[in-house]
Amino acid sequence: MQQPLPFLKGHGTENDFVIIPDPDGKLDLSARDVARLCDRRAGIGGDGLLRVVRAAAHPEARAMADEAEWFMDYRNSDGSVAEMCGNGVRVFARCLERFGLAEAGDLAIATRAGVRRAHLAKSGTGDAQDGDGGVTVSMGRAELPEDGVTVRVGERAWAARHVSMGNPHAVAFVEDLAHAGSLLEAPVVEPAAAYPDGTNVEFVVDRGPRHVALRVHERGSGETRSCGTGACAVMVAAARRDGADPVADGQPVTYTVDVPGGRLVITERADGEIEMTGPAVIVAEGTVDPEWLDGQEA
Ligand SMILES: N[C@@H](CCC[C@H](N)C(=O)O)C(=O)O
């Protein structure tokens, strides 16, 4: 890489991202490059990376280009690719506004899990957390395979619910979030065959009626301060546990989901579509030294 590489840094409920604009899809960011950029000590630092690419310029998104101009190429902090990132898609929408590539209002974003539709409140309106406008995203429908899954941390084990939000989740209701321990290592999820590509794991407690709190261990990133797809998976698992099924009942249901880094409000509509609202904040912008990125030192 010869030229300084522009980047932004942003977060949604403290799930933080390095954002790299690459409209024409010219950059070849290897897993190693991503891991170096996301390194909190030797790099910029982030739970993941969002590359902003025109859908028409990316082989995985070309088929969506008629519906969505921009593709969110999301990578976990270890460099692995994931299908979807819920906090990331809000921050991505905020970035498009920041770059002048989209205006506040409605916009479609292509992801590996399909097109997601976002509604951006105008920046600086002060009508959401962090002094910035909130973003609402239609996250698609949840899938709930009926396979029995167990999550284990040390000596403790919980029955968990398998939920797909385009990416995989195992949701375990626990008595105390501290029971999940340090989460420095990935929880053991069994049977492993239920998740051939690994999984994100959420631990959930009740806070009140239709109000829960979670901790999450993310595939490819470790414990993070928030996971948007995870919060949606938790919302749906909690609703089913509480006997609510909006498609069957013809009634939408809304849960408040607290995460270590803030709060998300999530509605499952009567047509099954899940809508998540939360903050999306850009905190910095700069350039990466190409010599550092290309260098050999770890
Ligand atoms: N933090 C994200 C999820 C990112 C992807 C996840 N780690 C995976 O591998 O599926 C979110 O906000 O949804």
TrEMBL record:
Q: Which gene encodes it?
A: dapF
User: Where, by residue number, is the active site?
Assistant: 85, 227
Any idea what this protein is called?
Diaminopimelate epimerase
Q: Which GO terms describe its cellular component?
A: cytosol
Q: Specify the domain of life of the species encoding this protein.
A: Bacteria
Task: Give the Gene3D superfamilies listed for this entry.
Answer: Diaminopimelate Epimerase, Chain A, domain 1 (3.10.310.10)
Q: Under which EC number(s) is this enzyme classified?
A: 5.1.1.7
Where it mainly occurs, coarsely classed, is cytoplasm
Q: SUPFAM superfamilies of this UniProt entry? A: Diaminopimelate epimerase-like
Family matches, as PROSITE patterns: DAP_EPIMERASE
- Pathway assigned in UniProt: Amino-acid biosynthesis; L-lysine biosynthesis via DAP pathway; DL-2,6-diaminopimelate from LL-2,6-diaminopimelate: step 1/1
Q: What does this protein do?
A: Catalyzes the stereoinversion of LL-2,6-diaminopimelate (L,L-DAP) to meso-diaminopimelate (meso-DAP), a precursor of L-lysine and an essential component of the bacterial peptidoglycan.
Q: Which reaction(s) does the protein catalyse, per the Swiss-Prot or TrEMBL entry?
A: (2S,6S)-2,6-diaminopimelate = meso-2,6-diaminopimelate
Q: Which organism is it from?
A: Streptomyces daliensis
- Any one biological process term the GO annotation gives: lysine biosynthetic process via diaminopimelate
Fetch the InterPro entries from UniProt. Answer: DAP_epimerase_AS, DAP_epimerase_DapF
* One MF annotation (Gene Ontology) recorded for this entry: diaminopimelate epimerase activity
Q: Enumerate the residues binding substrate.
A: 15, 76, 86-87, 167, 200, 218-219, 228-229
- Subunit details for this protein? Homodimer.
The record's comment on protein family reads: Belongs to the diaminopimelate epimerase family.
Question: What keywords sit in the KW lines?
Answer: Amino-acid biosynthesis, Cytoplasm, Isomerase, Lysine biosynthesis
Q: Where in the cell is it found?
A: Cytoplasm
EC class, as a word, reads isomerase
Tell me which Pfam families the record gives. DAP_epimerase (PF01678)
Q: Looking at the keywords, is Amino-acid biosynthesis present? A: yes
